[in-house]
C-alpha cells in the first residue's frame, strides 16, 4: 500500500486519467474529490464490496440453475 500525506487542495493522479483531490479535513474526516472519465466507476469501499457479493451470489445461482 502506498501511503501519502497531502495538504488541502493537493491531488494524486492514478494512471493518466484519474485525479483525486483533498478538498477538506474536518474533525478527522477527509473530503475527497474525484475526476475520472465517464466510463470509470467510482464506489465507496462498502458499496463495492456489496456489489461484489451480489455478483458472486448471482453467479452461484446461475451455476446451480445450470446444473439442474
Q: From the helix content, strand content and strand pairing, which structural class follows?
A: alpha+beta
The profile of the biggest β sheet is:
3 strands, antiparallel
Helix count, DSSP H or I runs of 4 or more residues: 1
Proportion of residues in helical segments: 25-40%
Give the helices and strands, then pairings.
Layout: E1 11-14, E2 18-26, E3 29-35, H1 45-66
Could you characterize the architecture of this molecule?
It contains 1 helix and 3 strands; from the N terminus they run βββα. It is an alpha+beta fold. It has one domain (11-66). β1 and β2 form a beta hairpin. The longest helix has 22 residues, at 45-66.
Short note summarizing the structure:
By secondary structure, the protein is of the alpha+beta class. It is built from one helix and three strands, in the order E-E-E-H.
List keywords for this structure.
3 strands, 68 residues
